[in-house]
Amino acid sequence: MNVYLGIDVGAVTTKLAVLDGSEKLITSLYLPTGGEPVAAVQEGLRQVARQLSPGVTIKGVAATGSARYLAGLVVGADLVKNEITCQAVAAVHFIPEVQTVIEIGGQDSKLIIVRDGMVTDFGLNTVCAAGTGSFLDHQAARLKMTIEEFSRRALLGSDSVRISGRCTVFAESDMVHKQQTGRRVDDIIYGLCRALVRNYLGDVASGKDIRPPVVFQGGVAFNAGIVRAFREELKTDIIVPSHHEVMGAIGAALLVCEQAPSGAGRFKGFAVSDAGFRTSSFACQACPTACEIVRVAEDGKVIAGWGGRCDMWEKKIQETI
Hints:
The chain has 10 helices and 13 strands. By secondary structure, it is of the alpha/beta class. It folds into 3 domains: 2-87 and 249-274, ATPase, nucleotide binding domain (Nucleotidyltransferase, domain 5), CATH 3.30.420; 96-240, 2-Layer Sandwich (Nucleotidyltransferase, domain 5), CATH 3.30.420.40; 277-320. Helix 3 (83-94) packs across helix 9 (247-258) and helix 7 crosses helix 8 (224-234).
């Protein structure tokens, strides 16, 4: 059986999804990146290899996410696509009538406007990470509770505490102040959820034509308090897909399934999970621009380099391979 692998490497988490030829999800993984995207991808490949049945062939691989070029290089991807495209493709696949996609991950957030199955507009968070998963994890830890308890207690809170959500520093200071004045913790937690949603709508979604159906994707969609806050702010139902946390990887797999090569793909095989990769960087001195060049070596041999305004180093590396 031929299958298709999508890999989504973000700053906080790494996701993998495997689809069969009929675009049915076979297995998926959700792993911490831990600041080491290459190691996270290799661990993901090890786990996927254990979960797939004998005789299964990886026909095509696609990479997305903030480290998509690095991940694509490591595994030998047939396709490298941006997160906007992959998130939208997955949303349309599961909810064909979708018109708005909210996607919030560990350190970034996106809004995607879809009309007739095509992306017509999008927005990204700009200067502040307030409302992303890492900030919510930090606040849960400060309150000495798990993120699961944080989510549950947000549903018990009332909309009686207003928290400043324009900045992570101000939001945290405001929460501390409200605690010191004796406000209920549940109300403070839900007040934070409402503040973060207002911040998202005022920044990422500013000027966008939000229409239902609205689909909420990304790891933060696990947080029932944020889902509730979006529902109340937008005054519409919020659809959370079953596999919302790995939708980027699913979208990548769907794309490579549609565009799979007729012959053998570029996938290097699961043995790449045991290869030795090393990344390094240096300032190019060929001109006054002094571009920072990133190099990737596999088992001691440099296999790629990028980051320059020109393609000088890319050409040099290709000439030595």
